[in-house]
Design goal:
Strand order of the largest sheet: 1-3-2
Largest sheet: 3 strands, mixed
Strand content: under 5%
Radius of gyration: 19 Å
Distance between the termini: 58 Å
Shape: globular
Number of helices: 10
Order of helices and strands: HHEHHHHHEEHHH
Length: about 240
C-alpha cells in the first residue's frame, strides 16, 4: 500500500508541477502547435488526404483591433468582466438544452483557450474537469490580453487553418493587421463550426450572422492594451457602459 500511495503522490506531483510550468511558459512563449492541430493532421493522414496546417503566430498588436471585439461579440460578451467562467451564460445554456433542439454551449473564450492549447476535443467529464483546471490557471497567471492573443492565434478557423494571420492570408489575401471590421465579424461568425462555415465563401446564413455580430460589436468596448482596463466610453451602451 505504501508503494501505491507513493506512486499516486508522484503522479499527482508530476501532473501539477508540469501543468503549472507549461502555463507559466506559455505566458511568454508562442504556442507553436496544439493537440487539435496534431489530431487534424492525423485525421488527414488516416483519410488519405494531403496533410496541411497553416499557422502563423502574430502578436496581438499585429492583429486587427476589430477582431478581439468581434469574437467577444460573437463568443463571450462578458470576457473582460468574468474570471474565466460566465455562470449566467452556463445557466442559460443548461436551461436551453433541457428544452431540446440544437445544443448550446456556455464556454467562455478563456475556457476555449484552455481547451485549444492544453487538451483535446470531446465532452467527457474528465476533459471538462481538466478544462476547468486549466481555465483557472490561465486566468490566474495570464492577463486578458494574453488569453485573447493565444486564442486568436490557436483557434481553428478553417480546414487546416489556425489563427488570425493564417485565415487572413488564405481567405482575404492580407495580413491579420489589415482585416476590416466587416471581415473580422465574418471570421467570428464561423467560429461555432469553422469546418462547416467558411469566411471565404459565406452562405446567406453566414452573412446574416455577420451583420448581427457587427451590431453587437457596438456594445463591446475597444479591446484594452496590456496593463490597461477597458474604456466604457468606447461602447455604445450595454453591460460595459454601466
Amino acid at each position: 500500500m505504501k508503494i501505491i500511495r507513493r506512486i499516486i503522490v508522484w503522479i499527482l506531483t508530476f501532473f501539477f508541477v508540469s501543468t503549472i510550468l507549461a502555463v507559466v511558459a506559455y505566458r511568454f512563449l508562442p504556442v507553436v502547435v496544439t493537440p487539435l492541430m496534431i489530431i487534424r493532421l492525423t485525421e488527414q493522414f488516416a483519410d488519405g488526404r494531403p496533410m496541411k496546417m497553416k499557422h502563423d503566430w502574430k502578436a496581438l498588436d499585429k492583429i486587427s483591433p476589430h477582431l478581439p471585439v468581434a469574437v467577444m461579440a460573437s463568443e463571450d460578451q462578458r470576457f473582460l468582466l468574468h474570471h474565466g467562467f460566465d455562470f449566467d451564460a452556463i445557466s442559460k445554456a443548461v436551461e436551453h438544452n433541457m428544452k431540446g433542439g440544437r445544443q448550446r454551449g456556455g464556454s467562455t473564450i478563456s475556457q476555449q483557450t484552455a481547451k485549444n492549447v492544453f487538451l483535446w476535443p470531446g465532452r467527457s467529464w474528465l476533459r471538462k474537469g481538466l478544462e476547468t483546471y486549466f481555465t483557472f490557471l490561465i486566468e490566474m497567471m495570464w492577463s486578458k490580453q494574453r488569453i485573447m492573443e493565444v486564442y486568436l492565434n490557436s483557434i481553428e478557423m478553417a480546414d487546416g487553418v489556425y489563427g488570425a494571420e493564417a485565415v487572413a492570408k488564405r481567405h482575404f489575401s492580407k495580413t491579420a493587421e489589415l482585416l476590416s471590421r466587416s471581415e473580422c465579424a465574418l471570421i467570428a461568425a464561423t467560429l461555432p463550426n469553422p469546418l462547416k462555415y467558411s469566411s471565404a465563401n459565406p452562405s446567406p446564413y453566414m452573412l446574416k450572422r455577420q451583420k448581427k455580430i457587427e451590431r453587437e460589436m457596438r456594445y463591446m468596448p475597444s479591446f484594452p492594451k496590456e496593463g490597461q482596463d477597458y474604456d466604457p466610453k468606447t461602447s455604445a451602451g450595454g453591460i460595459y457602459s454601466k
